[in-house]
Design a protein that fits this description.
Length: about 350
Amino acid sequence: MTGTPPVPAALPQPLLEAVHALPLPEHRRVALAAAPDAHLLLDAALDLGDTDPDGARALLDALRSHAPQEAHRQYATHALAVLLRRQGDADTADRLIAGLLDSGRLDRVLALLLAEEFAADGALERALNCYNIACRSILTGPAETVADLNRIGLMPLLGRAAVRERLGLTPDGHDLAAREADRHLPDAAAELRRMAGDTTAPDLPLPEAFSGSFPQDTADPRPIPETVRENHAFFPHPALGEARERGLLPADPGSGSGDPAAHHHAVELTLRAQARGFPDVRLGTIPVTPAEIADFAAEHGLDPADPGTLRAWVSAVPAPDSPNVAPWPPERNHPCWCGSGRKYKKCCGSASLR
């Protein structure tokens, strides 16, 4: 490589210097040039963790000191602690996590992640503290509001109740409300089976996201409501270049089209928003080639670059139960739906994607 694309000065200078000093993959440099964003730097640090731990640590240190948003600085601190623990420096990792807990400003999503880690390690008091932070906005209201939550919203309360139970604490109003709400929501394993179109297969293992749920009473199975499936089309990674050449993705560098992940991140954020607003709708993803979209647009007189054309294609062409449809979201340790080859939790499922 003879040169590197400049990173705009939207990021602080110390971060720019850290980026230029590291052997980042070309696609990361191109992405940062087009859409400088701290979460892209977090992804880059994760990429470097296995191949260049020193480089990853340098980038994470720069993010901890200079990332524009507090949440990004906290995620960088957590990622650094994970890296150090993997390298055998548990004492420094513990000090970093203790600093996060003592800050009084712990991000709610990161608090939930830490709570699950502490609970898995048996550090129940710390887990409860983090669950209380993750549930703060719910705990300040009446327990009756718990009944309005979907399963994703209920997850931190169920984890909190499970930890309180392990600590021998008397259930409080929110614990009882969470248990009751959990009884009437679709079972997570059954929901995953239904999303996959199979209601007869044996129970699937629960994804990590539901690890706080209470054991189910098999003698009293939960009703599974009638739902609909809505699939979202996307261009797979190998087709992104062709999609841009055909004008199916924005051509303006300032729009973020130079970021190979921008298209998939936009789809992911749409899926997350839909899951929050319509929790009973089964969601899926399906790949489409640029040629298919161009032909479909020409046949129906549509603009192939209009995002609505993707939605029209997925509604009109593939069968809802097409074998190419993958239920969303994948389990955290399973491959990401976008086809990057990375685990979902380190790709489109990253908590740093906002």
